[in-house]
Write a structure and sequence with these properties.
eight-stranded mixed sheet; alpha/beta; binds adenosine-5'-diphosphate; Rossmann fold; elongated; binds magnesium ion; 2 domains; 446 residues; single chain; Nucleotidyltransferase, domain 5
Length: 446
Amino acid sequence: MPRLHSAQQLVKDQAKRFNVLVCGRRWGKTTLTARDLVVECAVIKRQPVAYCEPSYKMMVDVFEDMLVQLAPVITRTNREHYKIWVVGGAVIDFWSLANPDKIRGHPYGLIIFDEAGFCANLQEVWDNIFRATLFDLVGSAWFVGTPKGYNYFRTLFVRGCSGRDGDERYKDWMSWQMPTSANPHIPISEVHASKLEMPEDAYLQEVEAQFLEDGAGVFKHIDRIIDNTILDDEEPQQGRLYSMGVDWARYSDFTVITVLRDDGRQVYWDRYNNMPWEQQVERAARVAVYYGALAYADQTGSGDPLLDQLRNRIYELQGKSKNPYSGAEALGYVFTNQSKRALIDACSLDIEREKLKMRNIPTQISEFKSYAYETSASGNIIMNAPSGMHDDCVCSFSLANWGRRRQGEVSLPEPDTSPNVWSQRVPLDETDMPGRYIESPDEYLL
Ligand SMILES: Nc1ncnc2c1ncn2[C@@H]1O[C@H](COP(=O)(O)OP(=O)(O)O)[C@@H](O)[C@H]1O
Ligand SMILES: [Mg+2]
């Protein structure tokens, strides 16, 4: 058997009971599972293994391949029912998920779903057939494959991400996402060549192992993170970290400022237009200083001088402020097709994992819901608001979330009952701020 390459070894070392391995083509998924993991379970632990493929043909291919690869340890085979017995007596069952009615599962120590992205009925076979076959031996499961849109494989991937990040509910789950280039046995020149030859979306999916869905909404399950208890801007609290995102009105008609608390709660939102630049900067600087926020602002093109002004103004305000807690700071974010993707994908993932709590502001919610992936004429994946709609709320929120990720989360031990130090802060003075943008009040009535 070949030695595992370092990415395969890392995956094996980090594995938990339920594992979701998302990789580019030719990463070595089948090599890791079909040889290493199967041998370890069947030969060393002497426990039965189920190996599942999405189609009959793929199942037969792997079966034939394993007959060759595992020859030294095979004691008996059944070519009619696709079973292999190995030394020690354990059986390896091969199942095609295309015919789930034929599956007669029995207790397994290990189940592998190869090319899980292609298994249209993955959820059904997992829930109804295979999950229970792991009970007796407290067996483990592997979902392995290349992404194929927003299907159940991706749902499990997100679950594993939560497990990896310490979510108690999914503590037995683990996920990885790795590109083809992690396999040292594939010449890197091939990977580079494929980038030139493939449409960008195909390359991102097949080689970079990204989940994409053309024409579909980027943000899933927005409704789950809408928090109707956030009625207005909230005061900063001692001990909390705040991050802010500013999308300047340059690209669209509105400037939007969003502030998130470290636990993902949206504590501030503002949107305004028709305002001279220095006033826009002034507002953003005040909000940043008020929350002591790490502010990410769009730095692309003419956003660059605005960032400088914002930074300077924050320093000035902070110098004057007597508030000892404020640690406001401004950083820039340059939008390219790729960097915007990273920004939006991070926000989308955090929404799906319910790491954020969004205030119920109709303009904002509808922007998020209509935001979509599109394929440009040149074949690039672009993410945008549909024509006629804005995306400044989405960008501002995602920038704030970028800062939030960067800062991390603080956990407060107890609700703070000590005298409120923050009441001594200079309140955010609205009176001399240039006209705060108010939408028609009806918009707030849901
Ligand atoms: N640890 C390894 N050592 C040597 N070659 C490997 C190793 N892992 C994978 N390969 C080779 O890389 C190629 C892709 O592996 P495979 O397991 O079929 O990838 P995938 O299932 O991810 O598409 C195959 O030619 C395989 O022999
Ligand atoms: Mg494979």
